[in-house]
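Hi again,

Forgot to attach this to my earlier email, sorry! This is the prediction with glutamine bound. I've pasted everything inline since the attachment limit keeps bouncing my files.
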Amino acid sequence: MSSSRRIPRYIFVTGGVVSSLGKGIISSSIGRLLQSCGYSVTIQKFDPYINIDPGTLNPYEHGECYVTEDGVETDLDLGHYERFTGIRTTVHNSVTTGKVYQVVIEKERRGDYLGKTIQVVPHITNEIKDRIKANAAGGEFDFIITEIGGTIGDIESAPFLEAIRQLRWELGGNAICIHLTYVPYLKAAGELKTKPTQHSVKELQSLGIQPDILILRTERHLGKEILQKVAAFCNVGPDCVVQSEDLPSIYEVPLNMHKQGLDRSILARFGMENSEGHEQSLQQWEEFVRKEKELKSTVKVGLVGKYDLQDAYKSIRESLHIAGIHAGKKVEIQFVNSEHIDASNVQEMLTGYDGIVICPGFGSRGIDGKIEAVHYARTHNIPTFGICLGMQMMVIEFARNVLGLNGAHSSEIDPATPYNVIDLMESQKALKRLGGTMRLGAYACDLLPGSRVRAIYGKDTIRERHRHRYEFNNAYKERYEQAGMRCTGRNPENDLVEIVEIPDLKWFIGTQFHPEYSSTVLSPHPLFMDFINVL
Ligand code: GLN
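Structure tokens for the complex follow:
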């Protein structure tokens, strides 16, 4: 493709029948397929809830909070987008109803609407349309994929669907809608049922949106007749109904979609062809999936955290799996609830793991168990990876048990601690509030020559994403260094400690940042690679 300004084509991805069908994986797979045809893509998520962003949502509500390089707290689907496509998302890739209303209300207060009554149509829908088009401003994308959160028929998604209806009209041949539905299997009847799909499409049509392509999620293989029946009932071409069967791995989804010609069907709807000179073919992806099927050995990793939920530590789990596949190892991850760990059972709870990850988090729940786990791992030389709060726990444990600072803590958990080895920066203390005071997004970090992390990354300076308020207290740095815990990564602008490691141990590294956010399928993160390699 030429590097000149591109005409953006829009793909809207909606979901029907039930939630949790994996729209994020489907959107990411479409992105990856279009890249393999030589096109540049971005993927954005529009969520109908009223929170401004998921930053304040409990992971039990919404899974992990994913952070972009430019410091936006977003939905975990953006993690899938980045991992599948290698693109970097920004503030433009994550929009919620709350954000849209906030902007419209600010404009109203400024008097931008010239005395008009502000209404959902056209003010909210216009703002949504502007937001959908925001990623086109730079002219760098051939395709802008927009995933709409929620399920067709939800009250709160109505303004988003109306915006899509209008945009499809305005953009003519440059916009299509892909609708993901579910085909249940009724065991008693021994039948696969297409009726919910027909109803869901009817609902979309009643909103003025005719889907161009249907993707049917199913637990059982759908025969040709079923696909043809759906096509006939739903006004779509027979080559525009594909199925998304349950597969052993989410990474097989793009290949399965490709096998059914989804990429060709999408391009055909736009009157486009597979571009010449394929910038990134599917070859590397196929290689990755092939490797995943031929893993030779298994390693067991204990995820020490407080949320017993697959999605809560999504990016960490995926980073471990991806690194494992590249290293030829199957990574078996088991959740270890830190709330249940104490000195009497820590040995039992951590037995059998080749390595442990001490997870990020906020607040005091499960903190003592994390410190106990770090203590056991450090004194038994178990490879340990501390991430954000996990790194802070490494620092606290070392203070208490090596430096002899009894009661050392983070001032987040114990504001009256005699040794505040983890503390707020002075500038943060002055703010006296929680909202909007986190260090978010990518910051530079210099790596100490001769350190393990310097060797792992193979460069002097890195950039990694942050999401935290508390920091290593530099007043204690000398003592740590002398006792064997080294501060090997430092922020060049404000001298904050970003990485600690104990070089004498097999693998004991803590990062104040979140390396899991920047791991991708084709470019596994060096720290996760090295961690898996030593197991
Ligand atoms: N609660 C800690 C802080 O705010 C760590 C945050 C995290 O693990 N993301 O500094």
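The longest strand covers residues 297-305. The chain has 19 helices and 22 strands.

That should be everything now.

G.
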